[in-house]
Amino acid sequence: MSPDSGRYALDVCLACIEACERCTAAGLKEREVALMARCIALDLDCAAACRLVAAYLMRGSDYLPPAAALCADVCRRCAAECERHDHDHCRRCADACRRCAEACSAMASA
User: Fold this and answer.
1) pLDDT by residue (tens digit) across 48-99?
2) Can you tell me the distance from the alpha carbon of 86 to that of 84, in angstroms, rounded to the nearest whole number?
3) Which CDD domains match (predicted)?
4) Average pLDDT over all residues of the chain
5) Structural domains in the chain?
6) Structure-derived torsion over alpha carbons of residues 86, 91, 94, 100, reported in degrees to the nearest 10
7) Which pLDDT belongs to residue 1?
8) Residue 42 contacts by C-beta under 8 Å, 6 or more apart in sequence?
9) Closest of 101, 81, 76 to residue 91, by C-alpha
10) For residue 110, what pLDDT is reported?
């Protein structure tokens, strides 16, 4: 992985963490919070997977490819769930998750 692609992947992971955390916080404030439970759970899982990948990127870990594959899967699932909700925070989260899934898929197959 080139330094530029590694930097891009790290930036995308960090942006996804932020989007997921913001989506979680906003989801918890929704009137029908029970309807957001799956979205919130996936936001938290996605942010955790992105944190792992970000740490592995910074350390140059040998475990990056399998972690990136997991992260890509979680990001895709989170994006799909967020797309089911008509909230700006969910739309922004879905966009960030799709970008991260794409970057992580590339790292997983590198």
Assistant:
1) 999 999 999 999 999 999 999 999 999 999 999 999 999 999 999 999 999 9
2) 7
3) DUF326
4) 96
5) 3-108 (1.20.1270.360)
6) -170
7) 55
8) 74, 77, 78, 81, 82
9) 81
10) 80
